Every structure is written in C-alpha cells, then in structure tokens.
Amino acid sequence: MIELDKDLALDFLKTHNVKCSDIKKVAGDASFRSYYRVFSVDKTYILMFAPPKYEDVKPFIMVDEYLRENHLPAPEIFHIDEINGFLLLEDFGDVSLTKILKESPEREVEFYKSSIDCLIELHKKEIPSEVSAYNNAELMREVFLFIDWYFPLKNRETSKSEIKAYKDAFFNLFDDLQKSCEETGKVAVLRDYHADNLMVVNESEIALLDFQDALIGSKAYDLVSLIEDARRDLDPSNAEKLYKYFLEQSNIPTQLFKKEYEILSLQRNIKILGIFARLSMRDGKKRYLDYLPRVEKYVTSRLESDSPYLREIANVIKSFNLL
Known about the structure:
The chain is of the alpha+beta class. About 50% of the residues lie in helices and about 15% in strands. The chain has two domains: about 5-90, Phosphorylase Kinase, domain 1; about 95-320, Aminoglycoside 3'-phosphotransferase, Chain: A, domain 2 (Alpha-Beta Complex). The protein has helices at about 5-15, 60-70, 95-105, 110-125, 135-155, 160-185, 220-225, 235-250, 255-280, 290-305, 310-320; strands at about 20-30, 35-40, 45-50, 75-80, 85-90, 185-190, 200, 205-210, 215.
C-alpha cells in the first residue's frame, strides 16, 4: 500500500478552502487506492487517494457522473486533483451492508431487496457510451488469472494441452453468453456489487461505492456479485428468494437469464480465486486466503451442477484436480 503524503493532502484541502482538523484512514481495498475521513468544521468528507503511478481517477469520475446524472446513489465529488490522485467525496458514513447485517441479520432480505431495487433502476438507464464492453477478451483475461496465480499457489504446473482445453471451453461459453446478452439486453455492470461496497444511509437507503471498473455486459453479473459474495455467507433460502425477486422485478426471460447467471457465476468466482491468490503471493495480502474456501465452494457447486451450459468447461476444470 502506498502511504498518503499527508502534507500534500492538506495542501489539496487548503487549496479548496476545506478547513481540516484531522484526517483518519478508514479503508483500503484490493487495489492501490486508499480512503480517509476528513474532519472539517461542520461536516466530514472522504478523501480518496489513488496513487497516479498505479491508479487513474478518471474512470471513477466518469462512472460517478453517469450514476448521479441518472439519479442513482453515488457520492458527490466536491474537488479533484488528478495529478496527485486525490478526490474529495461525499461521506456516506461507515455503516456498510456487511456491518449492519452483523448487528441485524434478520434484516438480510430487506436490505438485499433494496440493493436489487437499485440494480433494477440501473438496468433501466441508457448505457454510457464512454464505458467499454465486457467482451470475450476481457472475460478470458480474467479467467486466466486462475491459471497464472491459483495454480502456482497450489504448486501446480500446467501443460499446453491443458491450457488449450481451458481456453477453448471458455471461449465457447463466452460466445454463448454474448449471444444471450444480445437478446436480454446489455447494461452498465458495476462489477464489485457486494455487501462491503454497499453503504446504508439514513438507516435504510442503499448507496454505492467502488464502481470505477464498470463495463457494459450482462444483467446477471452484479446479481452474482451480490448473492455469491466472497466475504460473507448469504442464507441459502434467502439467496433463492432474492434471485426470484430479481427475475420478478426485471421482467427478463427466465431461461436466458439462468444461462447468463450460471456462466458468470463460474467466470467470476474462477477469476476471484486468481485475484486472491495474486493478492497473497504478489502483494503480501495474506488475509485474502481466508476467503478462498467460500469462493472454492461457489466454483465446485457450479462444476457439480447439471447445467448443460457448463458441462464442457466443468470437465476441463475438474481434470485439474485442484478443487
């Protein structure tokens, strides 16, 4: 993690006439970004620090503007310093969906339905022209994180024939996915739509964080992120209710959506295994290994399912004997 230059941050705040009495770190994430609460005279702000050598604040600004223009609950951006990687943001507080459900687990369905309602509203909006497509090349790049990092984590080498079989099976799957999306309609996909990134404001309203990696893709992707959360277990009966709730509210063809959901469930969780292995091995963030069993469970449940869409890739992945 790149440490914040506090003097530089204070100069940024002073330039914009923000009188700061204190700055306290509140979070970091799997990227190089970090976040700080700025205490001012009569309010608080969130300072995002995105080290310019590693991060670019422009995608966050672009997606934030898109969301706010469409009346979706993203934070207001008060001030920007692209050169030094600073954004001064609206403070949504520190009550995430994860936190409130630890205190009130009986409210799980209520808050998850609110999160789904927010997704449904997002899916009604015209897709932003500036945002790239979640195409086969990007989907494939992500699943190769499994080969590049999860395999070494397990001290497992791969052969050229194994890699070819893996690549061919996923390409066939992604072609099916894209054909389905043409029928169901593509939307803005926020990509990290899970309980840690959803804030609860005014005691019951959902607000959005961490959406700078948005792409245009399937309506199923963010629902997979929400229901198959790498960091917390969702009650299985509630997960089923919420999946059905999404279908009821979105008026989407059930079988096509099921196909997209199953494909992206496998794709996303395979990707996450690779990302968490990389965070541990390359970046020294060993805590991410604690989440692997939950994500492995999501993957194996897909591999063991009777889904006709996943049969080819399931046979390939099972042949690796890693899960």
